[in-house]
Amino acid sequence: MVRDTKFVTNGKGQVSQMLFAKRLEFLQTNVFADMDKAKAKALAAGRQLIDLSLGSSDLPAETHVVEAIVRSLQDRSTHGYLLFHGTEAFRLAAARWYEQKFAISVDPETEVLPLIGSQEGTAHLPLAIIDPGDFALLLDPGYPSHAGGVYLASGQIYPMPLRAENNFLPVFADIPGPVLAQARMMVLNYPHNPTSAIAPLSFFQEAVAFCQQHNLVLVHDFPYVDLVFEEAKSKEETQTGLAPSVLQADPDKTVSIEFFTLSKSYNMGGFRIGFAIGNAKLIRALRQVKAVVDFNQYRGILNGAIAALTGPQDAVKATVATFRHRRDVFIDALARIGWQVPTPKATMYVWAQLPPPWQQNSVEFCTRLVETTGVAASPGAGFGKFGEGYVRFALVHEPAVLKIAVQKIAEFL
């Protein structure tokens, strides 16, 4: 790979050479950044934007959550740096929340770590695990920050293909031996972004056993823990929930770490607050990385998060019901224009296979769609090679707006 070179002129008119790290070569494109440019172009052309490209909830945080933050703002003692031990109340709340949901004990001192959003955690963790040249096993399609963190750690990526015929679950037996010999970590994410697939507990049990056998760290990104729409149909589902935790398959936390966020369940995306729960050594390693990057989130936001985790959970159920209704409205509207899409069981997304002639050019489809109609979606190719042929719609608008979006899509098609 040729090292990127930039030329700049100093104050004396002399040209000097500026070199950038090779790792930036892998970060030249990003699905959200690319669509942001296309959206800006559509706005400049006078289009009215309906943005279905970003999974940023349009629902507000609950009043008692906001009030806890407001009270904190009036408390001058919250205005300083917040070191790890100052996060004890939040870590305790996160541990109790997890224990109530999954019936697995968690040590808030050694097995919980506050994060500035779960994306920050998944991006930083490879720095604690990956040495240059090591492999990370990632889902393809998958969330972009998973790959970005590996590239920042100068690691290599082995994409685990997700195919509809396999219910968008990876096949571990297909991973080549030489790759496994150099692999250090595997990253999973169920309910899955972007495909909205759900993984059963039996799959996580297989993943844990595989990672134990091959000495891999098992990372589970779990932002959609509550955004599941279907009812349990079997005894196993009733006991574990339709969105099981990886730690239910690894209760001793031998190889696993799990990332949570308050962005989806509690509509706190802009507050950037999440946490990790898992193996104490992994938590300590991630804490070491964070120690040179940040001083944790503002205490007032942590107080709001505590209010969310420990307060009434009726709003979470209401959020789930809202996105279930939007899913049904959007799927029905697509069907009425002749675009048949499987009904997702979870998340806030619809993962739709593109109709002809767009099946091999999701980027052009999304670019032309937003430029022509103002409707923005995320191209499947932006989530990985095996996302090509699909498009992801985020259900982050009221049903009436979603219907208008589908009408515009129909006109475009």
Features:
alpha/beta, 39% helix, 413 residues, Aspartate Aminotransferase, domain 1, globular, Aspartate Aminotransferase, domain 2, single chain, 14 helices
The CATH topology of the largest domain comes to Aspartate Aminotransferase, domain 2
Strand residues, percent: 15-25%
Q: Which structural class matches the secondary elements?
A: alpha/beta
Distance between the termini: 40 Å
In DSSP terms, counting alpha (H) and pi (I) runs of 4 or more, how many helices?
A: 14
What about the largest sheet? 7 strands, mixed
Query: Low-confidence spans: pLDDT under 50, at least 5 residues?
Result: none
Order of helices and strands: EEHEHHEHEHEHEHEHHEEHHHEHEEEH
Q: Provide the gyration radius in Å.
A: 22 Å
Assign the CATH class of the largest domain: Alpha Beta
